[in-house]
Design brief:
- The chain has 111 residues and is mainly beta.
- Strand 5 and strand 6 form a beta hairpin.
- It is elongated, with a radius of gyration of 17 Å.
Length: 111
């Protein structure tokens, strides 16, 4: 018997190319990183082709090419398993969960 409550959050990022030329970019997404053994974080589903960002915990990215006048979508769905008596809210993950803060040096803008 699973003694945990499960919460799922899905996020979709849409990229639209209004130009007449293909455009390439990277899409970065972050999932929570649990510091507690009782809290389990897992990626439920995702757009294929994601890579883990080296040297970071919880960061993933996709290399995306958007064709002229087309739209691409990147989907990420995360599940958290928490004990039944655990007070949980997506809006208040700290201090039970932590993420890696994004910095301009870590994720530079592409030209």
């Amino acid at each position: 018997i699973d003694r945990k409550r499960h919460f799922v959050r899905t996020h979709e990022t849409s990229l639209e190319n209004f130009s007449s030329k293909p455009k390439k970019t990277k899409v970065y997404e972050q999932i929570p990183v649990s510091e507690l053994e009782d809290i389990k974080v897992s990626m439920e589903e995702s757009t294929k082709g994601y890579l883990k960002e080296g040297g970071t915990e919880g960061w993933f990215y996709w290399d995306v090419e958007v064709l002229p006048r087309k739209t691409n979508r990147v989907l990420l769905s995360v599940s958290l398993g928490v004990p039944k008596d655990f007070a949980f809210s997506w809006n208040n993950l700290a201090p039970q969960l932590r993420g890696v803060e994004a910095s301009p040096e870590r994720f530079p803008a592409e030209e």
